[in-house]
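[Discussion] Sanity-checking designs against the backbone

I'm trying to build intuition for which residues belong where. Below is a C-alpha cell string of 470 positions. I'd appreciate it if someone posts a full sequence so I can compare it with mine line by line.
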C-alpha cells in the first residue's frame, strides 16, 4: 500500500481541466446535450466527492438527471464500510445491465471506496462487462480524463493503481444546495482501527492547507451558505502533516472569524485526539455548533484495545464529562459496534452501561461486519449471529428510550434553528445540536435562523411553533 501524499500541481490540474472542454465539444459537434446520473453510497466524504464528479460532468456539457434510466453516463460512487453496503452496490450495478440494454450508448463508471480493491477489480472484470470505467478515490481528480478516454476509445479504462493519496485543489464542484455545505478539511486516515477498511481505501491522513479551506468557506458564506460541516475521518488530527503551525481548534476559530451569520459543524472526532482545547474552543464561539459526534465503538476497555482505538472507557468518559461541563447544552451523538470478535455478554453490558451513563441524543448502531484485509476479519468470532442480533436489538431499545426522554425534555424550551426545507405542508429546521424540528410557517423563512418553541417530540424528531422569545 502506498502511504505517501501527492499534491496535484497547477500544471497537472490545468491538463485535467482541459478534458471537460474536449468532451463538451465532442457532444456539441453531435448536436446532443447528454445526461448523467451520480449515485452516492456511504458517508459525507463520498457525498462531497460526488459534488466534484458532478462538477466535472457539468463542465463536460452533461445535464444531471435523477435516474440511471436513459442517462448517457452513470457513476456509482461506492462505500466499502460494511458487507451490506457492498452488496447493495453489486445488486444495483447488476441492474444497470438492463438500463444499458435499453440505452446501449450508456457509459457506466464505478468509483469510491470499493474501487481499487483487487477482489473488486477481479469480480468486475469477470462478471460485470457493462462497466466502462473504474477509478479509486486517489484518482478522482482524473475523472475528466477517464471519461474522455472511455468516450473516445470505447475501451474499458481502469485508474486503480496504488498511488499516494492525492490533494487536488481547484476541481470544479457542483453543490446541490447553497444553504448547507460540506467542506473536506483532510482526507484519509492513519488510525487503522482493526475492523475498518477506510485507511486501506482512502490512504494516509493528509490535510488541506488552511488558506484553501478558509477561502472556500469565505466563498460559501458570501454566496448564502448558513451551515458549514467540516469533514474528515479524524478532524482532531488536522494539521499534523502540514508545514504551517495549526491544529483543528485553530482552524475552527479562523473559520468562525469570517463575518456573517452561520454555523460550523464538524465530523468525525476521534476520542483519542479530542482535546480540552477543542471543547474550550467550541464553548468560546457562538458560531461553532454545540454538537459533537464522538464515536465510542464499545464500552469495554478490553474490546477498545482489540479495536486499536487508543483510549479506554475511563478516558472516554472523562472527555465527555469535561465537554459537558464547558458546554451544558451539548448534543452528543456516537457510533457503536455490536458483536466485535470476542465481545462477551459482560463486555456488551459495559456498552449498555456507557450509553446509560453518557445519554446520547442519538446513536448510529452497527453489527460488526468482517472486512477482508483488516486484522479483525481474521480474529476468532464465536458469537452466533442470533446472539449479535439480540444484543443489537437490546442496544437500540435502550437508546430509543433515552432519545425519547431527551427529546421530551426539549418541550417548553426555545431553540434557535436554521430553517432548511419543507416536509409536506410543514417547514423543517435543525436545532444547533442538529435535531430535526417540524413547524408551520412561511416557506420564505427557509434559509433563516428562527426561534422555535418546542411543543411536541418523538424518538426521532421535534415539533414546535415560531416564537419571538430567545
Ligand atoms: N472515522 C470515523 C468513522 C468512519 S466509519 C471514526 O473513526 O469515528 C463510520 C462507522 O462505521 C464507524 O464509526 C464504525 O462504528 C462503523 N464501522 C466501521 N467499520 C465497521 C465494520 N467493519 N463493521 C461494522 N461497523 C463498522
Ligand atoms: Fe476507520 Fe478508525 Fe479511521 Fe475511523 S478512525 S476511519 S473507524 S480507521
Ligand atoms: Fe464508506 Fe468510504 Fe465513507 S468506506 S463510510 S464511503 S470513507
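Best answer:
Here's mine. Compare freely.
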Amino acid at each position: 500500500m502506498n502511504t505517501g501524499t501527492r499534491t496535484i500541481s497547477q500544471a497537472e490540474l490545468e491538463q485535467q481541466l482541459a478534458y471537460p472542454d474536449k468532451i463538451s465539444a465532442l457532444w456539441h459537434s453531435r448536436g446532443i446535450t447528454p445526461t448523467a446520473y451520480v449515485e452516492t453510497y456511504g458517508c459525507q466524504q463520498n457525498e462531497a466527492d460526488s459534488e466534484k464528479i458532478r462538477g466535472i460532468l457539468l463542465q463536460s456539457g452533461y445535464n444531471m438527471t435523477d435516474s440511471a434510466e436513459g442517462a448517457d453516463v452513470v457513476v456509482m460512487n461506492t462505500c466499502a464500510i460494511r458487507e451490506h453496503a457492498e452488496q447493495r452496490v453489486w445488486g444495483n450495478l447488476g441492474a444497470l445491465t438492463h438500463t444499458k440494454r435499453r440505452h446501449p450508448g450508456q457509459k457506466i463508471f464505478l468509483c469510491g471506496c470499493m474501487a481499487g480493491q483487487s477482489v473488486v477489480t477481479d469480480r468486475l472484470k469477470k462478471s460485470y462487462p457493462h462497466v466502462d470505467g473504474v477509478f479509486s478515490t486517489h484518482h478522482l481528480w482524473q475523472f475528466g480524463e477517464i471519461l474522455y478516454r472511455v468516450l473516445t476509445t470505447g475501451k474499458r479504462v481502469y485508474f486503480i493503481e496504488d498511488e499516494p493519496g492525492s490533494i487536488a485543489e481547484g476541481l470544479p464542484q457542483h453543490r446541490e444546495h447553497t444553504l448547507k455545505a460540506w467542506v473536506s478539511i483532510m482526507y484519509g486516515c492513519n488510525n487503522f482501527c482493526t475492523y475498518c477498511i477506510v485507511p486501506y481505501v482512502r490512504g494516509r491522513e493528509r490535510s488541506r492547507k488552511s488558506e484553501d479551506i478558509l477561502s472556500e468557506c469565505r466563498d460559501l458564506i458570501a454566496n448564502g451558505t448558513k451551515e458549514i460541516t467540516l469533514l474528515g475521518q479524524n478532524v482532531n488530527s488536522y494539521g499534523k502533516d502540514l508545514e504551517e503551525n495549526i491544529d483543528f481548534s485553530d482552524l475552527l476559530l479562523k473559520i468562525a472569524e469570517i463575518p456573517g451569520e452561520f454555523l460550523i459543524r464538524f465530523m468525525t472526532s476521534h476520542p483519542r485526539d479530542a482535546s480540552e482545547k477543542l471543547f474550550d474552543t467550541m464553548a468560546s464561539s457562538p458560531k461553532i455548533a454545540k454538537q459533537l459526534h464522538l464515536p465510542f465503538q464499545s464500552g469495554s476497555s478490553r474490546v477498545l484495545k482489540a479495536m486499536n482505538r487508543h483510549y479506554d472507557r475511563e478516558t472516554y468518559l472523562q472527555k465527555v464529562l469535561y465537554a459537558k461541563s464547558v458546554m451544558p447544552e451539548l448534543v452528543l451523538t456516537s457510533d457503536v459496534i455490536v458483536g466485535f470478535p470476542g465481545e462477551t455478554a459482560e463486555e456488551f453490558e459495559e456498552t449498555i452501561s456507557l450509553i446509560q451513563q453518557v445519554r446520547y441524543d442519538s446513536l448510529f448502531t452497527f453489527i460488526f461486519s468482517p472486512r477482508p484485509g483488516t486484522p479483525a476479519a481474521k480474529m476468532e468470532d464465536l458469537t452466533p449471529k442470533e446472539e449479535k442480533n439480540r444484543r443489537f436489538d437490546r442496544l437500540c431499545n435502550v437508546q430509543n428510550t433515552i432519545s425519547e426522554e431527551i427529546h421530551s425534555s426539549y418541550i417548553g424550551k426555545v431553540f434557535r434553528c436554521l430553517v432548511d426545507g419543507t416536509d409536506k405542508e410543514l417547514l423543517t429546521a435543525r436545532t444547533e445540536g442538529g435535531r430535526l424540528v417540524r413547524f408551520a410557517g412561511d416557506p420564505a423563512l427557509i434559509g433563516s435562523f428562527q426561534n422555535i418553541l418546542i411543543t411536541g417530540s418523538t424518538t426521532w424528531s421535534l415539533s414546535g411553533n415560531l416564537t419571538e422569545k430567545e
